[in-house]
Amino acid sequence: MKPITTQKLSARSMAFILAGGRGSRLKELTDTRAKPAVYFGGKMRIIDFALSNAYNSGMRKIAVATQYKAHSLIRHLQRGWSFLRAERNEYLDILPASQRVSENQWYLGTADAVTQNIDIIDSYKIDYIVILAGDHIYKMDYEVMLREHVDTGADVTIGCLTVPRAEASAFGVLAVDTNKRITDFLEKPADPPAMPGAPDLALASMGIYVFRWDFLREMLIADASDPDSSHDFGNDLIPQLVSKGKAVAHLFEDSCVRTGENEGVYWRDVGTIDAYHTANIALTDFTPELDIYDTAWPIWTYGEVNPPAKFIHDEDGRRGSAVSSMIAGNCIISGTEVRESLLFNGVRTHSYAELFQVVAMPYTVVGRRARLSRVVVDAGVRVPPGLVVGEDPVEDAKWFRVSEGGVTLLTQPMVDRWLAENG
Q: pTM score > 0.90 for this model?
């Protein structure tokens, strides 16, 4: 008789996070950093959500594949995730595209990023691998998905969002039968297939895949030798498994972590300036949809040693105050009115300035009498005294990036151009 074991499947699994993409829809925010390294929520980076989900699910073997402008991301991983200890059989491997296969071959696609690291994954002696994107905001227990993968005997299990069918054309959409077996995979279809029994809903792929490692390993080796393949999960491996294997859909609502008073099924792709601004400012709501204060499912990150935030001056028109806002440590709000805004660590604001729905990244400085409304300020930007942004979109667009939704992005090169003409 085999011994009874209660070991979680996550303990026998590895999380492989794909974090090499630029995220070009974030425009100048990703000029110097990859999308997973973009700041979020006052002190985190976007990748911290996938990493924290893996860690909170019980996974202690994690790899992050990097490629585009990875220094900021790698530095964050080294500083914030070094608590994993090899002597406790815990690992976080950073896997830059390093021409391990040939001198002119970087990561060709998402599947190739795994293929080029087969020897490293083999060394972990794992049974299962969970492939994750490193650029989405959500809380999910991967143990639930792993258990479903084993129970159904699937070749691949794909994490899925339930979305309105009218909006599903923006996603890769899965057609399923009544047993959640995937019968077709369609990339951004004009007429998305509906869920069984729910004609107004569709299933969108989250880019989360669970495999037995020995099974995926064989597929990757075969794919690497196929000259017609783009070596990508979504384009090559998944369609092949849908047509010839057993692919099963896992519903995100079955494994999403709900903890807050107002927290439902929360998942966001903050891949545009508008989406990024909206998701950050929404955290200042009285009961936000995403609970980042939950201690039972914390979002782990690099925590700088900072003094507390400080608010100074108390006179009419020159009062350091923040209402319905989130202010990180080491901020000094000096005679500034801050409303519905999110300020990362080290921000300095000066007298008579006004901030409304501003996302200010670390170590930005807002000059005296500046007025900012619905603005994203990149890290380290020095906003000149008296600058007004967010009140005249036509004028703003001459110097800064104005999104389709009317959010203005400020970076230091943009500010320098404005100063050259107006300073």
A: yes
